[in-house]
Amino acid sequence: MSKQDLEVIGQERAAACCPGLAAEPLEDERATELAKVFKALGDPVRLRLLSMIASREGGEVCVCEMTPAFDLSQPTISHHLKLLRQAGLIDCERRGTWVYYWVLPGVLDKLAAFLTTPRAAGVTA
């Protein structure tokens, strides 16, 4: 069974505490918080890094495996990873000389729930 096949338990509760974009107008504080996340995702390198981390079997990846995928220096990759960490999307741990990264649990589901708009009954795409 892959991660995509797992049922998310308590998603209704998460939606109730954090209403989606179409549920009600955003408060200033929540808009500022979300803008940081979307700003971090607004860069193609950071979006690719997040995808590399999120899609990795086992849930984590070493920076040494990500750097060769880009035509960028290691310090530049580290800077992009730092911005993803500051946005609350990923976390990391140093193990010897390498740093391993993983997506924080539930963060992508929360973003997806925020962007999902409720469908009216009987409406099809």
Considering the chains and any ligands shown, give keywords for the structure.
disordered N terminus, 3-stranded antiparallel beta sheet, alpha+beta, 3 strands, 125 residues
Task: Work out the helicity level.
Answer: 40-55%
> How large is the count of helical segments?
6
Low-confidence stretches: 1-16
Radius of gyration: 17 Å
- Provide the β-strand percentage band: 5-15%
Chain-averaged pLDDT:
82
Q: What structural class do helix, strand and pairing data support? A: alpha+beta
**How are the strands ordered across the major sheet?**
1-3-2
Task: Label the overall shape.
Answer: elongated
Largest sheet: 3 strands, antiparallel
What order do the SSEs take from the amino end to the carboxyl end, as H and E? HHHEHHEEH
Query: Cα distance, first to last residue?
Result: 29 Å
Strand tally is 3
